[in-house]
Amino acid sequence: LKIDTDEYSGIVIDNYFKAMELGKNEAIERFPRLLELIERYPANGPHFKSKAKSFGPTWMYIRWIPQMVAILDNPIAEYVFPALYQIAKIYPKALYYAFSISYEHYMAVYDTLERQAQKRVSKIAAAVKSELMGRFILELRRLTNPEHLVVGLIDLLQDAINNGDIDKNFVKVNYHTFEQLLMNPNSNKDLGSIPKDFAILHSSFFLDLFGRNGSKLNKLNTRTMQRLKKYYQDHIKEKNKSSKPDNQLMSYSPFLAEFQGIELDEDLEIPGQYTGYRMPHPEEHVKVVNFDQRLLVLSSQRKPKRLRIHGSDERDHNFLVKGGEDLRLDQRIEQLFVTMNDILHGNPYCARHNVTIRTYKVVPMATDVGMIEWVNDTLPLQACLNSIEPRISAKARNGYVDLITRYHGDPRLTSSYNKMYNTERDRIVTHFHKCQSVIRADLLREYFLRLAASPEAFLHIRDDFVHSLSATSISGYILGIGDRHLENFLVDLNSGQLIPIDFGHAFGSATELLPVAELIPFRLTRQLTSVCEPIGIAGMLETPMIQILQTFQENKNTLLNSMDVFIKEPLLDWRKIAMREAKRQSRFIFSFLKAPESGGSTAELTSDNSGSGQSSGTRGASSSRNNTSTGSRNSSSTTLDQEIAWYPQQKLETARNKLSLENPGYTMAQSVLRNSLLKGFHSQIEKVAKGEPEYNIRARVGEKCASVQEQVRCLIDLATDPALLGRTYSGWSPTL
């Protein structure tokens, strides 16, 4: 039977729009598939355009705004534009932040865009224009510490040198923003005391290097960058290490400190109210009245700040403002968690036991700033353990580091960890258990006992913790989420639920890109498993994990469709973001040895086998797409288009295999082989990942598991194997 694909795709388009108008959630979920359909069968583009233009409930497009604004320079943009323009006219504030991010990209390559693409971008920009929202983004940038703004400038200028396609005017506009944030202390009335002090000390250097209003940027070269980097290292980074954080909003942004919404003609809505899951009513949205004068400055690398907003609903709304980071990755992961929760709600066991992944709002506003909903009544997992035994993290890490130093070399060098794969299993396991023996196994269990008002309350807390741990673990494995150190989990102080946060590494990047590859599928260390005692892992964790994984496998088409949309998003290069994260974290080399209570990513290590003397986390980390590394493949023989097509396809294939009973040990071993930084260690690491039949169930199973139960047991075996934990990066705190 020969199918007329054009006719068939036209029928699909018709019926999807009908189903959406009838409120069918599955049709709304799969709307991006229509975008793929008209890309594959462009003859139906005009038909899609007609349907999209006449479609009534425009709000149903809202959750897919990031994907739609990302294709305005794509050949199918002329068909999608009417739908996007409808949103711009009816719900401009729903579109503003997502469009602002894509607008940065379009301005960077504006001269290379076709004339029609330029017109589309300009028309949307005019429709959503808001001076107040633009000013709000600028003022949120002021909450980023000056030294981190300089790092952002260095990245931008380095990209401009590496990538000849970046528009020179775009560079000047961004430098002008930098000047607004940190320069001209005498004439700039918008500077708080912190940026003003910085400007007094350093603006003369930037003026000399780049000229007034960036007049010398046209002569930007490698020598200029060397001067800038040296000045940053000697005069900015080192000077700011000992400075105490200021918690006064006025010190950063007088505009936000003095803001009074009632005095303005335009309302500023509290971010995150356009979810796309129901029709929005902007007139009912909570508006910003003013901002609390005190900030809470967190101690992590980029010093993010909690900003308290006083809303028109007479309630306080807390957000974490993160500068110097692209939060789109976190936002997409949270969206995938929402899809996963929808799937879990259909499982009777999960519905009965309230098995869900705790989510929160993430609002990217630019590629270097965004807001995250503050989850009240929570503590980082590390803080919970420290409250029972102070400085336990430092104690655990120091013992572990001492053993690495004694037997394998400097723990700050990647080879010290990778050489451990040449060491026999018994020796590694003995060392690991020796490190664990000096630490109580039940610190988290003790914390929950103190949290509970009665024995019955403890049982409820334990159940909620176990179910959230199961959901977080299985979902994290499917999505390839790594870097799960103790600071990347929050504990709900009311329910005991575990909340995953900070997704700098997703889709296996922690295994494939970091110089010390993560082989652990999810965190299931002793402090977590001790909460299950005396029943144990088999009695408490296996059943919910089996139910969750089985439900995901039964709905894998829906899940893979959603993942496909996000992974293939044109302007969201997962690999590039992960490598940039590794690069930025590597600037804090050795910090885990100096800051006893901080968690850490493997990206903080120094590579001693690269031959170049540069930090291993920086390899291929340029944000220029033309410089994107291709892992184990030869980047010089790979075109840009091939790279863009290959990488997401390979990620989807890995996820599909996980949802098709593939042995986790085999999955992990295959991922390691794609890590080009591990040359010379591939075979040893692959062997450890697959395990040994004498000790590991995963080694007694073939490439494919016989059942979901067997796959879960292999996952637990992989996550709790002391032969792997004993070779894991110390900042991950494997002994806890």
UniProtKB/TrEMBL annotation:
User: Which BP terms does GO give this entry?
Assistant: double-strand break repair; telomere maintenance
Q: What is this protein called?
A: Non-specific serine/threonine protein kinase
Q: Name one GO molecular function term.
A: DNA-dependent protein kinase activity
A Pfam family annotated for this UniProt entry: PI3_PI4_kinase
FATC domain mapped to chain residues: 704-736
Cite the PANTHER family for this sequence.
ATAXIA TELANGIECTASIA MUTATED ATM -RELATED, DNA-DEPENDENT PROTEIN KINASE CATALYTIC SUBUNIT
What GO terms fall under cellular component here? nucleus
Q: Which InterPro entries match?
A: DDR_Repair_Kinase, DNA-PK_dom, FATC_dom, Kinase-like_dom_sf, PI3/4_kinase_cat_dom, PI3/4_kinase_cat_sf
Q: Where is the composition biased (Low complexity)?
A: 618-639
Query: Which domain of life does this protein belong to?
Result: Eukaryota
Where does the record place the PI3K/PI4K catalytic domain? Answer: 291-615
* Positions of region (Disordered): 597-640
Per the record, where are the segments of Polar residues compositional bias? 599-617
